[in-house]
């Protein structure tokens, strides 16, 4: 599974790494078993049987949304004697075959991409250095697809081309490092539409009285982070700033046999009885419901 985790990280795909940290017989999982849960809810690897996977899938998708790690305790019933852990999320899984397990869920979110035009200038170089400290990933030069923001710090060298390239790549925020006068001239020369103009921050940077190159870089990145934070649905979520386009829609249903909450996906056991749709944690619950 380590190779798969490395592969997904390199592909900048959001996922959750789930690892069994404690297990009580007769559960089939053992400490060290692990799996990855992708943003579409699919699971690769092993952290327990079908019913345990149902609980893991639902909790994992929640961690992708808020970015928080979770210790998930899956118990067969509320009275199960299993050493408690403060702060753990407890799920009672009546389908579980007698055992209990604890699974650590760690969301792995791609770092936000920041493009820099003019990274060899003193201000551009300072932006690169500070971006690394802030866990921001720098794109390749002039490769802005998927970037959350682009800093244009060419100081008069190719600024217009960089702004045009960033806007054409769909970058939502372009920070132009220039004086107010030159910023106005650059933007006027581009003939931007109102919508494009709204995506550019002329004379970028929060006013902190910056004088040095590093201070200017700090003010620019502070403005970028502030603006991007303002667009997030969860203000306290990690600054991953990515469009998780494959994220499961989060539709859930209650298994009418065992009472579990299940995430509805392509592989979720399903049945239509008397014109009503029902979803189940496993094929066993579905078959029992249909036969009743």
From TrEMBL:
Gene3D superfamilies: NAD(P)-binding Rossmann-like Domain. Residues 11-73 form the XdhC- CoxI domain. InterPro entries: MoCofactor_Util/Proc, XdhC_CoxI, XdhC_Rossmann_dom. Pfam families: XdhC_C, XdhC_CoxI. Residues 147-224 form the XdhC Rossmann domain. PANTHER family: ALDEHYDE OXIDOREDUCTASE MOLYBDENUM COFACTOR ASSEMBLY PROTEIN (PTHR30388), MOLYBDENUM COFACTOR INSERTION CHAPERONE PAOD (PTHR30388:SF4). This is XdhC family protein. It comes from Paractinoplanes globisporus.
